[in-house]
Request: fold
Amino acid sequence: MRDVNYKIVAEEFISNLEDGGEFLMAKSAEKTNIMTIGWANIGRIWTKPIMMVAVKKSRFTFDIIDKANSFTINIPITDMRKVLTFCGTKSGRDFDKFKECNLTFVPAQKVETPIIEIWGYYFECKIVCKNEINPEYLAKKYRKSYYSDEDYHILYFGEILACYINE
Reply:
């Protein structure tokens, strides 16, 4: 593993979101889950490097991340489209995604949430804020397009404590 500056990885991060996603891992005292994300953001808030991820309340991962103090982002640099698709379309309520996809998770360097053992980039993030999307402040076209079921995302803001690559 080699440390890298999160700003250098930001472009790869955004590109992967546009091309089918990345893996978000969350761990509570009881469970660990992995899901595919396609909506997230990276930048600076509160003078810190921050990763923001969006998780809907209806997702299995919500029950885990809402009890967690951290999350990790795992960005593959090899073709993992089948695994990303499986993790993005199947629920941890019904499947053991790690077993089904032959994934191994290992301890992270600075947070409790593990990472998956892949060739790729990793972000380790300590949750510093969470906020539910308020439909009153959301453009009507987005409410109609993305939230017709009124299942709004919770935004989790994580201070980036580590960013590195497994080559």
